[in-house]
Specification:
- The chain has 174 residues and is an alpha/beta fold.
- Helices cover 26% and strands 22% of the residues.
- The protein is built from five helices and eight strands, in the order βαβαββαββββαα.
């Protein structure tokens, strides 16, 4: 199954996570089933030292699943493997209406670029990426080649995502 994918990208501290969270809330309130992928550029661990699953991984298990009556998670240790391509991760997802991808600046899906005054860089990503279809900023942006939205205008940004991914056409067919 192919998943509709749309990205939220930008430099560190540009508002990507905040916008992604708000968009998930907005789009799910509109009735869409949304999944997300968050790219991390640093070492991270979702497991805590001392838990049984942590001990399983440290003992050498390549994959550890944690399952309860409320959720399940699968952790895969990469060891000497390369980071998997985004498409491989998304292909493991259950069916959904939309996958929002946070980060992954150079992947081949449409994206919104986030910008904040306090962001790490003011370098424009949209200028060099034809897949960036809009900019969401907390300050006035001049001379941009794509539409510019206020970073807090979540409803308008969700409308844009619905249009760009074909979700609006799908709603009309329901």
């Amino acid at each position: 199954m192919t998943h509709r994918t749309f990205g939220i990208t930008g430099w560190k501290n540009s508002g990507k996570t905040t916008l992604t969270v708000k968009l998930v809330g907005e789009l799910t309130s509109r009735g869409w089933k949304v999944s997300t992928v968050k790219h991390a550029h640093h070492h991270f661990d979702i497991d805590k030292e001392g838990t049984d699953s942590f001990r399983h991984r440290k003992a050498g298990a390549g994959e550890v699943a944690i399952v309860s009556d409320r959720r399940w998670a699968l952790m895969h240790e990469l060891a000497d493997e390369a980071e998997p391509p985004l498409a491989d991760i998304i292909s493991r997802f259950a069916p959904c209406d939309l996958v929002l991808v946070e980060g992954y600046k150079r992947e081949g899906h449409k994206k919104i670029e986030t910008r904040r005054k306090e962001g790490r860089s003011t370098e424009r990503l949209a200028a060099g990426d034809p897949l960036i279809v809009a900019v969401a900023s907390d300050y006035p942006v001049q001379d941009e080649t794509v539409p510019v939205y206020d970073l807090d205008d979540v409803a308008a940004l969700a409308d844009l995502i619905e249009r760009e991914t074909g979700l609006l056409a799908r709603r009309g067919a329901k």
